[in-house]
Predict the structure.
Amino acid sequence: MLRGADLRVTRPRLAVLHAVHGNPHANTDSIIGAVRDDLGEVSHQAVYDVLRALTAAGLVRRIEPAGSVARYEARVGDNHHHVVCRSCGAIADVDCAVGYTPCLTAADDSGYDILEAEVIYWGRCPECQSTSETGEKDRRV
Ligand SMILES: [Zn+2]
Ligand SMILES: [Zn+2]
């Protein structure tokens, strides 16, 4: 992947790519944790720099839902969307509603060359739903 993107293959780059593949939608802190498990001590700055290079090369996609820190994922190039849990911040992938990137066909593009459509669905994840249901039952008792 790195060679395909004309990036020099370095151990930090491999480790960061590996971490992003293994932890979809991970934030920088958990990526740093995973990279350190792999390589030992690595500076925050080194990981930030690698993430920036990988994002610029299109190997990694950066998403930043409102109120959340930046998250990274290796699923690139399909313009999928995300559903974010309002309670705990969990994130899951949501495919485009119909076919391949139909959202890129804006009803009125105002003359812009549209490159990306970003849709974020906000809700509550199954885990948080079941926790609050239990909570309500407890209160009734
Ligand atoms: Zn949740
Ligand atoms: Zn995703």
The longest strand covers residues 81-85. Residues 85, 87-88, 90, 124-125, 127-128 surround zinc ion (ligand 1) (CB under 6 Å). Residues 4 and 59 are 10 Å apart (CA to CA). Residues 126-140 form the longest helix (15 residues).
